[in-house]
Amino acid sequence: MNTVILLALTGLGLAALYFLVASGLSLVFGLADVLNFAHGLFLGVGAYATWWAAGNLPGAGSDGFGFVVAVAFGVLAGALVAVLVELVLIRPLYSRTIEQVLVTVGLSLAGVALLQATWGADPRTFPRPGWTRNVTSVFGANVPNAGLLLIVAAVLVLAGLLAFLQFTRYGLIIRAGVENREMVTALGIDVRKAFTLVFAIGGAAAALAGALGGVYFGTVSPGQGGSLLIFAFIVVVIGGMGSVVGSAYAAVAVGLLQQFVNYYGTSGLGDVCVVGLLAVVLLLRPQGLAGKVAHA
Amino acid sequence: MTEPILSVQNLSVRIAGLHILQGVSFAVAPNGVTVLLGRNGVGKTTTLRAIVGLTPRNGEVRGTVRMGAQDLLARPTHRLVRGGLGYVPEDRCVFAGLTVAENLRLAERRGTTPAYDKVFALFPELDRRGRQRAGSLSGGQQQMLAIGRVLLNDNRLLLVDEPTKGLAPKVVTEVAEVLERVAESVPVLLVEQNLAVVRRLARDAVVLSAGQVAWTGDAQELLLETALTKSLLGVGSEAPVSARSEPGPPAGPARTKGGTA
Amino acid sequence: MTNSMVDAPPARVPDELTPRPARWAGLRPYLPLVALLVAAILPYSTVNLPGIFEGPLNSPGTLQLLAICLVVGGLAAGYDLLFGRTGMLSFGHALYFAAGVYGTDILVTRAGLPLWQAGLLTVTGGTILAALLGAVALRTVGIAFAMVTLAFAQVGAILVARDFGGLTGGEEGLPLDVSGLPAALVGVTNTVNLYWLALAYLALVVFVVHRVSGSPTGRVLAGLRDDERRIGVLGLDPYRFKLVAFTLSGGLAAAGGVVYCLIVGGASPHITSSELTLSLLVMVVLGGPGTRWGPVLGGVLYMYLDHRLTAFGSSDAVNSLPAFLSHPLSQPLFVLGTVFILAVYFFPGGLASLRTRLHPLLHSLRRP
After folding, report:
1. Are A268 and C344 within 8 A, CB to CB?
2. What integer pLDDT is reported at residue B256 of this predicted model?
3. Which of A124, C148, C213, C346 has the fewest CB atoms in 10 Å of its CB?
């Protein structure tokens, strides 16, 4: 029983990580039709910026409030990079979907190489508060605190995003834009401002995933974003593009499936099962669990 | 004649290599309803979408479209709309996942007071169903919502694309009544297939055929000439709207493509 | 873009060469053959090109690099059948290539099959794999299709990396057991034969892609690229045509994997990564999607630069630059990624469009 609880909670921790990456991807794709391969870069930027801030930024550190400052710095850096990417690289190619994907592909290659050039290819030890290395006993199972931290952060981000989408004017514009972007402009709204906003939100969430993922794994390396990104893509497709709630459900399904199968089956089998789940969902419901019918 | 509110000169649209509009020129009078007629696929919807700047990316637009002194083709859609060009698209295009109230709220603009009184006076139903999802409304109610959200703001000209398409006869009459009242204060460029509605509303008519203007003039005169309407529109003047056999492909350029090819 | 489906030319065939006087015009159809001939006799040359290659042209090192470039050129041309000619954005092409490499390697090294059997089985298996996965993935279109193919390819990467059943050698890779191979394909002195094999593969891919795009099927594929709905209106089933293209392209990639496995002498897990597919995309876009020679050029050049930039990055010229310049420049992927982004903005047609772009200039130079 303890094992099951432990697996469930670590699976949810993984799901939290996926959700943080996937929610932004999903919104960016749903609204702007951009399949953002550079999203893993935002995660890398967040992780490295947090790592750098903990060591160098005055007031920031690897423990207590200093760590909060360091993470905030990382999140800000991720959001900033995302906004710059949108304004400089994506916006000039407005509505040219394929070219936008190509640019994000180039950016993901160049960006990861740049991180590698600056901080080396080898993993760096991530600064983390002492308590995140400990475990908490949940119904007798010793669960790593870093995983619990991820779950709490993801739940807060989910709640925040839903509130934002439900109660603010921009949230309304984003929800409408995911459904029919053209009609939003036909009501006199400059939908591109909303694009920049979802990039900022997505960049911030991914950067948070980078920072907390660093805490969870204990290290940070340039390629970390890329491997997470693929599973985030799967989560986005399963959940339905443009749906934050769908991403949350799908992330939980993927995280738990992966964790349980990897434990009770062979290591790596869980990852394969996740792709199997993707295939099943596509065959039964091509538009994903929730969300608009995917279109080109 | 008074200065037209909208003048379209030599408008050409190519989409994915197909020449859908080939030098279309016409003017819209500053009051009343001007109706854009033609068989399916002659480019009526393409014309409206080109005017409001919604030609798809693989399309190419040439010519001039002026509203007053303003050249419309150079400007993005949201600016045009803010400048007083209201657009009610084909197939309603309400946001199905949003509530009626949210659909309306989306049309609100900073610095102006939305004319909810006016809209709710025209469509009391929209007030009552504020919390209902727009996707669960009937076709007629969706059409009311699509028109209502445009009327929340002041417009200098309304573009209305086939508002009676797919609606029951009784609802068609309701929509026509509403448009009649709207047209008392705002000029309307209307695409309409239902000749009974045209007869009731239209003052001027522009008939398109194969991407070109085939006829312009007084709409009532056009309707009197049965032979002419038959050759230009492919229907007798009394044919009901439901007689169209085309199953209604997706909105946008797709429906115009087959016809011109 | 071609204008309408019915009378569309089979493909935009660019003329790579600058305009020539008319008396040479009749030779143009034979230029590919001439190029093939030149490439075929290249290994007999002992010319030394300092700075471009490390040894003379016929040295094993240079020939191996050239052979890799040729295989990748062929791979890019096969990928273009999807991307440039049908408009399908697959992010999983590495899977079929990796299936070719690992399939050959495992069948030869672990199962001890003779090479021809291993090669045949691998190509057949790779083609079937592409058909099966394509049948599922093609239920989606556009961006979703890209994500699904990416996910499938990721399974391949996981299977290889986790070393299920001890077949793939995991992270270490699997060196090819050469004891059972034909003697002509083994050993440093026989690199030239591998070079010819690679050249033959490239020629095969170019020929197949050319024939396909010239056929009625190719015209339907071009129609799908330009506007899928129009094909549907004609009563043709887009799904089936796309599946044909996907399967063919996957089969060609698997065949490339067989050749690559022989040239490199084994398999390593990095060829299963999504980065390889992304690189293919970069090659095709840099070269010129939907053209006959663009993807080949793009592939050859990309692979060459990828190898040579590593040397360039550690050269004295780069090392003497300040750190903020020298560090990024020492990363081939940084340079290539940046060039790629610039190309998307400023050279949408890729290298193949250079001639048309330069044409007015040359014209004005000739007649001042």
Report:
1. no
2. 35
3. C346
Torsions phi, psi for C280 (to 5 deg): -60, -45
Which two three-digit tokens encode residue C269?
């897990």
Helix/strand/coil for C10: coil
Tokens of C260: 């690559």
Which of C209, C217, C253, C252 minimizes the C-alpha distance to C238? C217
Binary contact (C331, A113; C-beta < 8 A): yes
Residues whose CB falls within 8 Å of the CB of residue A30, separated by 6 or more in sequence, listed in order: A178, A241, A242, A243, A291, A292
pTM of the model: 0.83
**Can you count the helices (H) and strands (E) in chain C?**
16, 2
pLDDT over 90 (residue A149):
yes
What are residue B67's DSSP bridge partners?
B6, B70
Confidence check: pLDDT of A286 > 70: no
CA distances from C164 to A273, C159, C265, C289 (A): 14, 6, 21, 37
Q: Inform me whether the C-beta atom of residue A111 falls under 8 Å from chain C C-beta atoms.
A: yes
Q: How far A71 CA sits from the closest chain C CA (Å)?
A: 25
- As a whole number of angstroms, the distance between CA A244 and CA A290 comes to 9
CA dist C109 → A207, B101, B256, C262 (Å): 44, 68, 60, 12
Closest CA to C177 of C97, C114, C271: C114
Domain edges within chain B? 6-92+158-260
Of A29, A109, A294, the CB nearest to C140: A294
The count of C-alpha atoms lying within 13 angstroms of the C-alpha of A275, restricted to the half-sphere facing its C-beta, is 21
ipTM score assigned to the predicted complex: 0.84
Beta strand ranges found along chain C (DSSP E): 174-175, 266-267
What residue ranges do the domains of chain A occupy?
22-223
Please report where in the chains the tokens 């940084």 appear, as a residue. Answer: C334
Determine the Cα angle at C291 with ends C128 and A109, to 5°. 75
Q: Decide if pLDDT at B182 tops 70.
A: yes
Return the pLDDT at C22.
53
What single letter denotes the amino acid at residue C1?
M
pLDDT tens for B145-158 read 999 999 999 999 99
Question: Are C344 and A103 an interchain contact pair (Cβ–Cβ within 8 Å)?
Answer: yes
Give, to the nearest 10 degrees, the angle between helix A244-264 and helix A145-167: 160
Residues 6+ apart with CB under 8 A from C195: C43, C63, C64, C66, C67, C70
Tokens 């419901």 label which residue? A285
Task: Please tell me the distance from the alpha carbon of residue A98 to that of residue A100, in angstroms, as a whole number.
Answer: 5
Amino acid at C265: G
Q: Do A278 and C148 touch (CB under 8 A)?
A: yes
Mention every residue, 6+ apart, whose C-beta is less than 8 A from residue C148: A237, A278, A279, A282, C92, C136, C137, C140
Q: Is C14 helix (H, G, I), strand (E, B) or coil?
A: coil
Region A125-146 average pLDDT? 86
Place of tokens 């399949």: A35
CATH class of B6-92+158-260: alpha beta
Mean pLDDT of C317-323: 71
- How far is it, in rounded angstroms, from Cα C153 to Cα C147? 10
Residue contact B17–C229, C-beta within 8 A: no
Q: Which residue of C has its CA nearest to A118?
A: C327
In the A/B pair of chains, how many CB contacts fall below 8 A? 59
Cβ atoms within 10 Å, residue B120 = 16
* CA C222/CA C87 separation, integer angstroms: 8
Q: By CA distance, what is A175's nearest residue in B? A: B98
Q: Rounded distance, CA A8 to CA A263, Å?
A: 11
| pLDDT tens readout for residues B29-78 | 998 999 999 888 888 999 999 999 998 877 889 999 999 888 999 889 99
Q: Name all chains with 3 or more CB-CB pairs below 8 Å to chain B.
A: A, C
Q: CB count, 10 Å around CB of C200?
A: 15
A224-239 and A97-119 helices cross at what angle (nearest 10)?
150
